[in-house]
Amino acid sequence: MAEKNGTDEMELPRFISAHEVAQRAGVSRSAVSRTFTHGASVSPATREKVLRAAEELGYQVNDLARGLLANRSQLIGMIASDAETPFRSQQIAALSRLLIESGRVPVLITTDQTEAGRASHATLLRYRAEATIILSGMPSKAFVDLAQRNGQPLIAVGRSEVGPDHIRINNALAAETAVDLFAARGMRRIGLVTSAVGSPNLVEREEAYTRKARDLGLEVHVERAERTNYDGGTLAASLLLTKERKIEGVFCVNDLMAFGLMDYARDMLGLSIPADLSVIGLDDVPQARWGAYRLTTFQQNAERQAREILQVLEQRLKEPTAAPIVSQLDLPLVVRETVRPLPGKKPEPSKGNEAE
């Protein structure tokens, strides 16, 4: 605390200014600006003096002020729910790293269905983010409409609104492949474990799975938990895996639910996986490789997805009025040890995490 004019006031934090650098270096203020502007003309001697003075003072360029002057904030918003879950954390980390490497500033807004969560989305508009990447099915269509009315580019991952650029996941192919795997092994009673969240990705997986199962004449049962997490998997397992149903194979809409289902099936019901029950997940999070699970799953590659998002972002910022960009990513199957082998065949060797 510092005393000033007879009253105690908080000392405000301050940053070293370009003017102070100019004084230390013995050059003009404009010379400092040119030194830190890519492509600007400045003599080698002046540049050396400015850089030395800046280092001694600890000066950092005010990119926020520069962005406001140029009407380019360099801020890129990321909206995501369940940021603590394994795949989402990988997704956020991979995308943040690529954005920083490209000279941009990622801003993460975590979201939920509360009023506070919905209001936080508008922050990205008020701070003039150059674009927003929606990594979650949570943000409402109202936010998408508001952003588009404000002219903010949007890249939606795993959604289906008209207008934004899209990175779509081939959920249908993954779900249908899971049914085919079960059917090829002679299973007639299969299940799906999902949640009541109702995001586009989850809806697509459920619809494709149940449609394919019925086309093949299989008996299919669906159980929904409140959340798409480990506890949701255990709850869904307790409802799905009854003696009356005699479920033979289960597709879980993500790996976390698969882990919960597997632990419940083995620990509470005494089932052997895959001898009594085959299980397939989706995401291929690091824990899927752990010895406790060795889960057969469909791989969402966070690094590959981040590269695709950045490519779409670059294209959109170069061509702001171009037609919406739509990119679709497949989900390779990673075979491990939770699906029983084909009749008359030995168990397939684990392929670990080799699929790309």
Automatic annotation (TrEMBL):
Pfam families: LacI, Peripla_BP_3. InterPro entries: HTH_LacI, LacI/GalR-like_sensor, Lambda_DNA-bd_dom_sf, Peripla_BP_I. Keywords: DNA-binding, Repressor, Transcription, Transcription regulation. Residues 16-70 form the HTH lacI-type domain. PROSITE patterns: HTH_LACI_2. One of its GO terms (molecular function) is transcription cis-regulatory region binding. Transmembrane segments: none annotated. This is DNA-binding LacI/PurR family transcriptional regulator.
